[in-house]
Automatic annotation (TrEMBL):
It is an enzyme of class 3 (hydrolase). PANTHER family: ISOCHORISMATASE, PEROXYUREIDOACRYLATE/UREIDOACRYLATE AMIDOHYDROLASE-RELATED. Belongs to the isochorismatase family. Gene3D superfamilies: Isochorismatase-like (3.40.50.850). The lineage of its organism: Bacteria, Bacillati, Bacillota, Bacilli, Bacillales. This is Cysteine hydrolase family protein.
Length: 175
C-alpha cells in the first residue's frame, strides 16, 4: 500500500511561549522526526501542512515567527509544504490532488493540535476515501484547555479515532 506521511501544523507557535507549549513537546518532536527519517529512507512522501492565518494581526500570519514550521523538524528540501487557512487540511488546498498524483492509498498522520486541525483532517481524509490510515502513538499533541488537560484530550480523541477513522500503532511498527 503506497503511503505518505502528513505532518500537521508543527509550527513555532507551539515552541515559543509557555502558554502555547504542546504537551510532551520534546518527545512528540523526537517521534515525528523518527517518522520523517524513516519516510525519507523509504522514499515515502513527507507533506508538511502549515496553518496560515489570513489576518496580519494573527500570530500565524505568513512570515511571522509563530507561523514558521518548527526548526527542530527533520525536514528535507524535497518535502512538500502545503499551506491551509482552515482546520481541514483538504479544504481549498492542493492536498487531495497531491495525494492522488502520488497514488497514495494510506496516510500516516502526525502533528498538532489533537482536537482542532489534526482531528478535522483525520476525519476529512476518511470521508474522502482514505480509510486505512495510521497514527503512531505519541506523534501528536495539544495544549491543556480550560475543561480538560492535554493528556485527557489526547486519550479521548485516540479512543474515538482508533479502529474507526484510523488505526493507532506503536511507533516502531508504522513504517
Amino acid at each position: 500500500m503506497k503511503q505518505a506521511l502528513v505532518v500537521i501544523d508543527m509550527q513555532e507557535i507551539f515552541f515559543l511561549e509557555p502558554q502555547n507549549f504542546l504537551y510532551d513537546k520534546e518527545r512528540v518532536v523526537e517521534n515525528i522526526n523518527e517518522l520523517i527519517t524513516k519516510a525519507h529512507e523509504k522514499n515515502i512522501p513527507v507533506i508538511f501542512i502549515q496553518h496560515t492565518d489570513t489576518e496580519e494581526t494573527d500570530e500565524m500570519f505568513e512570515g511571522k515567527d509563530g507561523w514558521q514550521l518548527h526548526k527542530g523538524l527533520a525536514r528535507a528540501s524535497s518535502d512538500k509544504v502545503i499551506q491551509k487557512t482552515k482546520w481541514d487540511a483538504f479544504y481549498q488546498t492542493e492536498l487531495l490532488n497531491y495525494l492522488k498524483e502520488k497514488e497514495i492509498e494510506q496516510i500516516i498522520f502526525a502533528g498538532a493540535q489533537t482536537e482542532f486541525c489534526f482531528d478535522t483532517t483525520i476525519r476529512a481524509a476518511y470521508s474522502l476515501g482514505y480509510q486505512n490510515n495510521l497514527l503512531a502513538r505519541n506523534t501528536h499533541s495539544t495544549i491543556t484547555s480550560t475543561v480538560l488537560d492535554a493528556e485527557q484530550i489526547i486519550k479521548h480523541h485516540e479512543n474515538i479515532w482508533n479502529n474507526r477513522f484510523l488505526k493507532i500503532v506503536e511507533l516502531d511498527t508504522v513504517l
